[in-house]
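Q: Now give one record:
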Amino acid sequence: MTHRFFPKWFDFVLLFTFSLVCMINRLNAQDNFWNNSGAPNGGQITGIACSPAGETFAGTGYSWFNNTGGKVYFSSKEGEAWTEISSGLPVNLESINCFAFHPDGDVFCGTSSGVYRFVENDTTWLNVSSGLPEYDVVNTIVINQEGAIFIGTTKSVYRSESKGESWMKKHMGSEEYAFVNSLVINSSGDLFAGTDRNRMIFRSSDNGEQWSVVNAGLPASGINALIIDERDYLFAGLGRGVFFSNDNGNTWISRIEGLPDYSDIISMGMSKNGELFVGYYDLSRSGIYSSTDDGLKWNEETSGLPGYTIAQAFTANLEGSVVAGTYNGIFRHTNDQDEWTNISKGLSKLPVRTMTKNSVTGSLFIGAGFGIYRSGDNGETWLDVSNGFNAYPYVQSVVSDYDGTLYAGVGYEHVFFAVDPVPGGIHRSTDNGVTWESVPQYFYGSPRLAVNQDGTIWANGYYDPYPEIVPWGRPGLFRSMNSGESWDLILDDFRCLSFDFKDGSQVSVGTFSHVFLSSDNGQTWGNFGFNSAVQSLAYDSGGNLFAATSGDLFRMKQNEENWETLQTNFRPGEFSSSLFVADNDDVFASPNTG
């Protein structure tokens, strides 16, 4: 089952492109000028399962970074390498949520747009959704020993005895819109359905023809996940922890000792030796817990995992390892080791929104996916250095000052409403990203950051000028001259999109309709109007200022006050999300479309 915590537009407004870069001015580079150093492999894994033959299938969610739908990846080598097998799937698929394996060898996957079948030794997925509602999302899928297929959707349970050629709705009493998150089958053929909207567990002993509610002992909370072991013991993951049943679901017992308070259990998995794993999520953190005694006690899993791990799905392979699909790729846990290993090689690259170089150590840092990564070998390999961040650190900006201190702007973009706690903020590292601490601030959001030559830090954000009257923020430009310990509001009620600096005290700021210029480090400002948002600014060595807007590139020469339009290769609908001026004054622009 896929739990998407953020709407599509959330990905879109945050994802800034570091992709194919084109030269605008004095194009004189060789054909091999650029070397693709790459970003870490990963992506949002929305479903994962291991076949009886030991093959692992993983599904991903929609990516706004390259405007592509969910994809399926396949590994026959315990996840050491992955190959995409998405032929036949819709190009704009929101997510691939679950997999199941037919006794005949066919693979079935449930998606945000129906059910698809992959015939063994074939290369294309076949849509087998005839009889299903057009917009019904398939959250879970199971197949019994006779080959009958059951799917749980946003409305009900459906059964197919023809390998998906036709489907029959199995009514769950009066609950027509049950939002079925999870289905499991025990050794006697009893079918269990965990639902979200009506907060119930249903049981059927006749292949879904009749259902009974088995909720005794459960709180009023949505059922996010179900799992059953070889003893037919049942475990349920709820919005209020884990519950256990050893009598076919007739009664349920709470098993939450050691779990975080008020944790929403969003996924469950079990190794071949019976070790239980759960993925949890709440507003302030997320992660994985494990139990070796049927949930009596829980231990947090941290070794080898990012500090913000959102585990959406688990599976167990034939060797006994447990594999977790997360928001930042795939991780494997083996019985003889107490740590997790990232096995995302071959998956798509994580979306990169920002990049900087430590001015002292020379290490590269990128904000990608749900984290921040460091490379000491010019991007050949990357290490996740996100410990100390929130549970979902979208890193909007990362910069380095002259003494090697790093600053990262993280969290949500476009968070206006007063939510406690408001995610986002600025984090600081003085040890090359090994540890991070939160920087004091009275504004919020996911700031874009910049540092000029004297160490002054600039940030955009939102603040509450009248919190007792207006319960949302107002945008502004902020400045800190003491390493982020205190901040001054410099431009009020302006949404700042871009920054650049010249000779320490000269500052340029781009907004939705203006470029603001200051020659005294922000004490006084002049401004120039534009007809569209100024996405990026850059100075060359001669003091000429370049501005990129939605489709055009402008230049204002030093000591002049007029902008000239330069010839560009931008197409309609494109804008430059990043400008860069090289040491020889060649100007590079990165379009939002790549």
